[in-house]
Design a protein that fits this description.
The protein has three domains: 114 residues; 145 residues, DNA methylase specificity domains (Adenine-n6-DNA-methyltransferase TaqI, Chain A, domain 2, Alpha-Beta Complex), CATH 3.90.220; 122 residues, Adenine-n6-DNA-methyltransferase TaqI, Chain A, domain 2 (Alpha-Beta Complex), CATH 3.90.220.20. Helices cover 41% and strands 23% of the residues. The protein has twelve helices and 23 strands. The radius of gyration is 28 Å and the shape is elongated.
Length: 392
């Protein structure tokens, strides 16, 4: 028997009373605080958007502040209050909350409620993450594109109210789970990043050629072209990949090309960095490039690996910088490409394909392991926050 079970058996053997949130506290709407009002120093302040993007279960410090003079106009959370974001485009995020555990008041923006209550603050914050809360919250969500939940609706949600000693023991256990989850996530991300660095180092070593290799401008061995499609031609579940100016391809119902090619963006955030190797039918954005090998002395897959290795450095020296970085066809044409013997190209391709597969497996496997651990954590969290209700 866990300590939580023992405490429940000792302190509330006939079940735990459930109460409406409005009966154990009050929802006070924040006011008058916009992003433009935030400063780097002054009175602590929390904008509702930061509850979605920055804060977790609880915090003792804010990332933003307001001036003392401006703070006089604003409603403020006291230490121990919950700050609840009440709008989002995502139903799951509506009602996301953070317990304010700082040592002074914090100003709170509109589109957020301050929940001032008589329970353990972190216990309430964990409850706001639970499936019990989510199930009840959904009934009160309104709006179309922007989804909202009112203080009145939140006040009707029922929360188990075990004795304070039980609340604190549940918080202790869930804090431990949260810490372990964060440590696991950091460990897995560090492992993945280490493998990526290891791969990048080995790739750079194997693709560094001295004077023994013949070098030619890309235009001599590669045909360079673009596509003719616009992004708005993409469809969901199309028959062919549609390569645009981003990391992942979209889909389209018609193809432009049936060939082996290396494709990349011509401008924008993906320029010179996003390369795909394609062997088959596809379409291409009008500001993306396709590189098709026309020489028997060069393997397409070798070009793919080499250009991923060296093009960023070349681009930094030759690209055009305006409102966005732009890659012009002559830059590709002048890009120097090594031509080692075909047998050597085949050996390099085989090695780098294997390394790519290993990194890809890690990129899929490690997040899957982390997701499984999160599911396990959520299961135990919901179990800890589920009690037999006391009969009135």
């Amino acid at each position: 028997m866990s300590r939580v079970d023992a405490l429940i058996e000792e302190l509330c053997p006939n079940g735990v009373e459930h109460k409406a949130l409005g009966d154990v506290g009050a929802f006070i709407r924040g006011n008058g605080l916009q992003k433009k009002d935030l400063t780097d120093a002054g009175i602590p302040a929390i904008h509702y958007g930061q509850v979605h993007t920055h804060y977790g279960i609880w915090t003792t410090e804010t990332i933003s502040f307001v001036t003392s003079e401006f703070a006089k106009r604003l409603r403020k959370a006291q230490p121990g209050d919950l700050i609840v974001a009440t709008t989002s485009e995502d139903d799951a995020a509506v009602g996301k909350a953070v317990a304010w555990l700082g040592d002074r008041e914090a100003a709170v923006s509109g589109d957020a409620y301050i929940f001032r209550h008589s329970l353990d603050s972190k216990y309430v914050a964990y409850f706001f993450q639970s499936e019990q809360f989510q199930d009840q919250k959904r009934r009160g969500i309104t709006g179309t594109k922007v989804r909202r939940v009112s203080g009145e609706s939140l006040g009707k949600i029922r929360i188990p109210v075990p004795p304070l000693e039980v609340q604190r023991e549940i918080v202790r256990v869930l804090d431990l789970f949260t810490t372990l989850e964060a440590e696991l996530e950091a460990e897995l991300e560090a492992e993945l990043e280490a493998r990526r660095r290891q791969y990048a180092h080995y790739r750079d070593e194997i693709l560094t050629f001295g004077g023994w290799s013949r070098w030619v401008p890309m235009a001599q061995v590669v045909t360079i072209g673009t596509g003719s499609r616009n992004t708005n031609e993409a469809v969901h579940g199309g028959r062919y990949p549609f390569f645009v100016r981003s990391q992942d391809p979209l889909t389209i119902d018609e193809f432009e090309f049936d060939e082996v090619a290396v494709v990349t963006a011509g401008d924008g955030v993906g320029v010179g960095k996003v390369f795909h190797f394609v062997d088959g039918r596809y379409s291409l954005h009008q500001r993306a490039y396709r590189l098709c090998v026309k020489s028997d002395a060069l393997l397409p897959k070798f070009l793919f690996h080499f250009i991923r290795h060296d093009f960023a450095r070349y681009l930094a020296m030759t690209s055009v910088h305006a409102s966005v970085t732009s890659l012009r066809k002559p830059m590709f044409e002048r890009f120097p490409v090594p031509l080692p013997a075909l047998a050597e190209q085949e050996r390099i391709v085989a090695i780098l394909d294997k390394l790519d597969a290993l990194v890809s497996d890690l990129s899929v496997g490690l997040p899957a392991e982390l997701a499984a651990r999160r599911k396990q954590y959520e299961y135990y969290r919901d179990r800890l926050l589920t009690f037999k209700e006391a009969v009135a």
